[in-house]
Amino acid sequence: MNTSAQSPSDSSITLLVDNFALDNLESVPGLAARIKIGDRHILFDTGQQGVIFRNAGKLGIDLTKAEALVLSHGHDDHTDNLPDFYAMAPETPMYSGPNAHIHRFCCRPDEKPFDMSPPPASIRTFAELRSKGLINELREPHYFMPGVAATGPVPRLTSFEDTGDALFKDIEGKEVDPVEDDQSMWFETDKGLVILLGCCHSGIVNTVNYARKISGMDKVRGVIGGMHLLRAQPERMRETLKAMAEWDMEFIIPCHCTGENAKQAILQHLGSDIVTMGAAGTVVDLGNMTKP
Predict the structure, then answer these.
(1) What residues contact 89, with CB distance under 8 A and at least 6 apart?
(2) 3-class secondary-structure state, position 56
């Protein structure tokens, strides 16, 4: 694993957008990553405020090489740059969960509701892509190539995990938003699964265990991405940390929406030999992918 802002190896994940950044890169709340498997490329989310394009330029990454865009879910901090990406690469197929384009809100008690919908220009992009047949709404896991897959919607099986916030489909806070479009990706390496999360509204334990089940690989090498634990209750944190320890990972890289308190709890529970805090510019070397 490499956490410096330099060229990735032959098979790798490079964080292009995160709440923090390495070296001379920019940070912004949100997430995006470039996946490189040999000469094949996939883009995971687009972040917001144009940061993905400026960071990619500094890292020498050509986003137009992406053969697919995988959307972890439809919140604005993951979809804001869709119009600009599709202006550059208009024929790139998108792989999302169902209804990623809908309006959605966060309505916490005693706080003013705020809109988390894809921006209007991104909603128009969704419509344009749909009219061109470029949106693939996943309702089950999908392999892009041997050893590289998106989960599609993740079954919610644990009793202690929820979406991580007061999320609704209306600004009045009446219709609960389960974020049914939430999905992650996994990579089957010779050292075990590497799992890439967007916000993980399905819950990290649900997500990791689902990837293990579908892939048939029990060993988890590492996890990188947003874990949405910033408002986790004590039971959730306790059970999540227990599961993380049981996975016996080589690394875990909390990013984006994990939350500072949760990051410190993970660090204290698993130790600095395993835990690295994520930032734009972080590179995870996937090493050798397993053969089909």
Answers:
(1) 63, 64, 66
(2) helix
Q: Which residues contact 147 (CB under 8 A, 6 or more apart)?
A: 37, 187, 188, 189, 289, 290, 292
In contact, 70 and 130? CB cutoff 8 Å? no
18's tokens: 């995160």
HEC readout, 202-264: CCHHHHHHHHHHHHCCCCEEEEEEECCCCCCCHHHHHHHHHHHHHHCCCEEEEEHHHCHHHHH
User: Contact 79/69 with Cβ under 8 angstroms?
Assistant: no
Q: Which residues lie across from 284 on neighbouring strands?
A: 13
Other Cβ atoms less than 10 A from the Cβ of 216: the count is 7
Which string of b and e fits 252-288 if b means at least 16 CB within 10 Å?
bbbbbbbbeebbebbbebbeeebbbbbbbbbbbebbe
- The CA distance from 20 to 285, in Å, is 20
For the chain, how long is the longest CA-to-CA vector? 53
Is-contact 263 19, C-beta < 8 A?
A: no
DSSP H or E run through 32: strand 32-37
**DSSP-derived secondary structure for 109-127:** TTS--EE-SPPHHHHHHHH
The span from the CA of 126 to the CA of 181, in Å, is 14
Render pLDDT for 105-136 as a digit per residue (tens, 0 to 9).
999 998 999 999 999 999 999 999 999 999 99
Q: Which residues pair with 96 in a beta bridge?
A: 137
Q: Is the pTM higher than 0.85?
A: yes
Q: Look at residue 267 and tell me whether its pLDDT is greater than 60.
A: yes
Neighbours of 88 (CB within 10 A): 12
3-class DSSP assignment, residue 54: helix
The C-alpha atoms of residue 75 and residue 54 are separated, in whole angstroms, by: 21
